[in-house]
Automatic annotation (TrEMBL):
Organism domain of life: Eukaryota
Natural source organism: Rhododendron griersonianum
Listed name of the protein: Uncharacterized protein
Record bears the keyword Phosphoprotein: no
Family according to the record: Belongs to the enoyl-CoA hydratase/isomerase family.
UniProt xrefs under Pfam families: ECH_1
Matches recorded under InterPro entries: ClpP/crotonase-like_dom_sf, Enoyl-CoA_hyd/isom_CS, Enoyl-CoA_hydra/iso, Enoyl-CoA_hydra_C
GO molecular function terms noted in the UniProt entry: hydro-lyase activity
Gene Ontology BP term (one): fatty acid beta-oxidation
Annotated GO CC locations: mitochondrion
Keywords from the UniProt entry: Lyase
Amino acid sequence: MVTLSSVARSMGRRFVGYPKPYLSQFRTLLLQSTSQCVNLRRLSNSDSGIVEVNLDRPGVKNAIGWDMLRGLQHSFEAISRDSSANVLMIRSSVPKVFCAGADLKVGTGKMLSYACNQLFVSIESTGTRVLDHLSVICFDWQERKTMSSSEVQDFVNTLRSTFSYLEVCHKHLTNPQKIPQALHIPSIAVVEGAAFGGGLEMALSCDLRICGEDAVLSMPETGLAIIPGAGGTQRLPRLVGRSVAKELIFTGRKICGRDAVSMGLANYCVPSGEAHLKALEIAQSINQKGPLAIRLAKRAINEGFEVDLASALALEEECYEQLLNTKDRLEGLAAFAEKRKPKYVGE
């Protein structure tokens, strides 16, 4: 069995103790990442199948630069290789922001000024203070350098492929000798505060999204004469429909957590500061289910959605058949007959 601890040892790192979070009943371990701004934590005891990726780049409001991008890649790969991981939560350690988007190191003051001014447009409709979100864009301007067009393209392509890692790629699912090309377990985005551009695209790549009431979500790229390039033009319409997606992308309009739920972009909107609690509740429920069944359900839904109904039903049959002779299926039947909780092992 490959675990996060063995992956850490193979990468020359180790688990270290992590201070108790505000949920004191949960003990966590921290896997030190190659990135300074991405931490991989796993819960323990009865929640040992739950892992968290924490974004921690407060100076730039979690804007995704190369260092954070590499940290995300390494974290997703480590989780994918861990057979004991059952569900992932992606959250921010920075107050009032999930992720400010891709750190493309814009090179002109005019473009920065325009981006800042856009934050004043219709911001009152979100009920959120302007200055809180002004700081999301206007960060560490003096430290920024210009990216060339080819560098931007390379960065965005890597960003797109990294986010796609959160989805199922079935061809390696039954071949453990292959390097995993996707994360087969469910992923949950925990969105408190701002999720702009690439930050929202990362959330869209997850299976579920939980928002706090202070969440502000936006695709502002067209205001900078570009389009969402990390999957936003494709995943957003699949969630909210083409017409709504076009309006959000064409205008860059900001929406709050409640609006996100009403249009199908988010699963839940909870009081500010409670998104992690709700996400944890959902993760715990998933963690109690049969791990193989959850992974194959994700595959059946994701891949089946992209093909015609007849092909999708054939895929469902294939996934169902893979579960018939598993130990977990027999355990589920036995637990039901004996009126006890099942103890699934992922086999």
